[in-house]
């Protein structure tokens, strides 16, 4: 066997929970360590260790990601009441993804992997659509009240000198009702915009953004203006040089265009639009097991992961000693994404080439009909062969080894 590929800078490795933790080790043993002299700074984000460190490990891993620039993350449990007892937790620790995103000030981009046999519900989507969700503010940080008839509701802003500005929301003369206050920050919108522009340049794909600025003439219009200003001042020339486009339209118009498109672009969404539309796209493209995810900070830091969770149901079967058939593809692509980015930043062409071949071997395996049970149930291929997780990985490696010759 040829010499292993050397790395210069470590990638930040964030281990996780349940079935994906099992798959994590298998991927490393079967597909990565035989080819790469892996340099990684390891952080165990498994719930047991998060609890032991009072979640400090999550913060440390995010700081390390800032320092080195590239991380790969395994899916992790976000604790709820049931997990408190299951893991005997000191506290209901926050979602690691939320903590990491807040520290990196990043935007999440989700992109489906397209393979023969898994036909999107919209058959004209022949290229992936990448969706980016602004994960700050709007209704997710709102204040709401029920209002009694006879009340008057106003917005009141008090400036630093104590001056008040008031605006009427509604005079509830005859009926009870509801009100809601939402906000956003220019800084957060600007970070979101820069992450999107950087990602589009990186992917060499057009960027689409939409809001409802015709109705929301101050709030949504602020998003439109900040995007336009940053584009004009910082990205226009780079976009023209790369031969890509930034395109703004109304949210309802963009939906029509997305549905009629062939894919192959990045769709930036406000928080609520992104919440709803990312679930729509994931469903329409077919499988959670084929959805990748990367967190990109405005300063150009990348954290790669699968979009799915820890696949708890499969893990409980695994613990009973059953062979499980879980799809490792999105987690493999998290590794290939991180290694390729590391190769790009450190100018290691062999590492980028390995990442390409790992992805190619993974896709070839599925197109040869070898896949997990859930995917096989959806696939239109004739010669399907559902296999357990380990066999799936070994089959990928058979093809990878041939490509690496
Ligand atoms: P999930 O782990 O994504 O799994 C939901 C179901 O989707 C599975 O039971 C399975 O369906 C199917 N599925 C998902 N990924 C699959 C794969 N790779 N291969 C085959 N089937 C797959 O979501 P969940 O059950 O709602 O959440 C489980 C845990 O994950 C929770 O503790 C949650 O907090 C955490 N979570 C973490 C992240 C993250 O770290 N980014 C994201 C989401 C959820 P069948 O059961 O029908 O086979
Ligand atoms: Mg959602």
Helix content estimate: 40-55%
Question: CATH first level of the largest domain: which class?
Answer: Alpha Beta
Each distinct ligand = NADP nicotinamide-adenine-dinucleotide phosphate, magnesium ion
Total helical elements: 14
Briefly note the structural class of the backbone: alpha/beta
Radius of gyration: 23 Å
Distance between the termini: 8 Å
Described by its quaternary structure, the protein is single chain
* Largest sheet features: 10 strands, mixed
Model regions low in confidence, pLDDT < 50 over at least 5 residues: none
In the residues, how many domains can be counted? 3
- State the total count of DSSP E strands: 18
Shape: globular
> How would you name the CATH homologous superfamily of the largest domain?
Isopropylmalate Dehydrogenase
Mean pLDDT: 95
CATH architecture of the largest domain: 3-Layer(aba) Sandwich
| CATH fold annotation of the largest domain | Isopropylmalate Dehydrogenase
Provide the descriptors you would attach to this structure in a database record.
45% helix; 3 domains; Isopropylmalate Dehydrogenase; two-stranded parallel ribbon; 405 residues; 10-stranded mixed sheet; binds magnesium ion; alpha/beta; binds NADP nicotinamide-adenine-dinucleotide phosphate
What does this protein structure show overall?
The chain has helices at residues 18-32, 47-52, 56-68, 81-86, 96-104, 186-203, 219-242, 251-260, 271-285, 312-319, 329-346, 349-367, 373-378, 389-404, and strands at residues 5-6, 11-15, 36-37, 40-44, 70-73, 107-112, 129-133, 143-147, 151-158, 164-172, 177-181, 206-211, 246-250, 265-269, 291-296, 302-306, 370-371, 385-386. It is of the alpha/beta class and 405 residues long. The protein has 3 domains: 1-108 and 299-405, Isopropylmalate Dehydrogenase, CATH 3.40.718.10; 119-140 and 184-285, Isopropylmalate Dehydrogenase (3-Layer(aba) Sandwich); 143-181, no CATH class. α13 (373-378) links the parallel β17 (370-371) and β18. The chain is globular and about 75 Å long. The termini are close together. The mean pLDDT is 95. The chain binds NADP nicotinamide-adenine-dinucleotide phosphate and magnesium ion. The site of magnesium ion (MG) has 2 residues, from α9. Magnesium ion (MG) binds next to α9.
